[in-house]
Design goal:
Elements: E1 5-10, E2 15-20, E3 30-31, E4 48-53, H1 58-74, E5 78-81, H2 94-104, E6 108-114, H3 136-143, E7 150-164, E8 167-180, E9 193-202, E10 208-216, E11 219-220, E12 228-229, E13 232-242, E14 247-254, E15 273-280
Parallel strand pairs: 4-5, 4-6
Antiparallel strand pairs: 1-2, 1-6, 2-3, 7-8, 8-9, 9-10, 10-13, 11-12, 13-14, 14-15
Length: about 280
Amino acid sequence: MKQKNLCRMAATFAVAVLLAEGFHADDTKLHGVWQLKDGSQLNFRGQKVAATVITDDTSLQMSGEEALVRELTSRGVTGVATYRIAPKEELKSAEKARPWFDKAGVAGVVALRPVAVERVKTYSPVVWASGYYQSYWGYYDYGWMNVGKVRAKGIELAMQVTDWQGFDVNLAWTWTDATNQLTGKRLARRPEHTLAASLDYHWPFGLVTGIDLNHAGERYDDTANTQLVPDYATLGLRASYPLTPRVELFGRVENALDAVYEVVRTYGTPRRSAYAGVRARF
């Protein structure tokens, strides 16, 4: 069957890409879930998570959200459909919608946005970069920007070298040309060039150190292409050391050079941040 919809699912701290086939009210099914690389750090088991389908089609919203609720419930999460907790007329504005989510006491949100593009984009599994949006609410208003017809083309190149004299190297570069065919304008918040690179070294005594570089080119923040957001690059540092086969110490510094940048215009992003902890596997 011809795949019709490329959907995006964004959670509070994670982004997943799903492929939806058919998507009819009576037989909504989700296929091809891409999972977060280190999803063990995200644990919403037993907590309430809202399922949101971003669309003007009421039947699609209701059937899609109920399908997401079933998937969440099967994973030990208390899923709730957004149409049950917030009126539809309030959903298109983050300012108006957020109080409804807060009132319902949800701990996270899973959002799926059908975009009706007849293509499937395969992402390289070798490089993991941080999410483009720093929070669900930074993505929210953009998610409701409807585009009637889109033409997107691009190139993705990826390279991976493992265990080369103790080094692991990952490199991925993407060029994307995405245009609204009705207006001739570039799609909002779509950088033409992105780059993600990482270098890890495995020391003989067990310590692993790594460095990450992420770069995103300039992009327009609006559909009229009048508000240009500059390009940016961030550098991250990582280290981990095993105490036992199942327990390790870890630490990381994000945005190590303390870059000042914006992913979404007028929305601040974290400055230099440091984290440390103990990770256990059972």
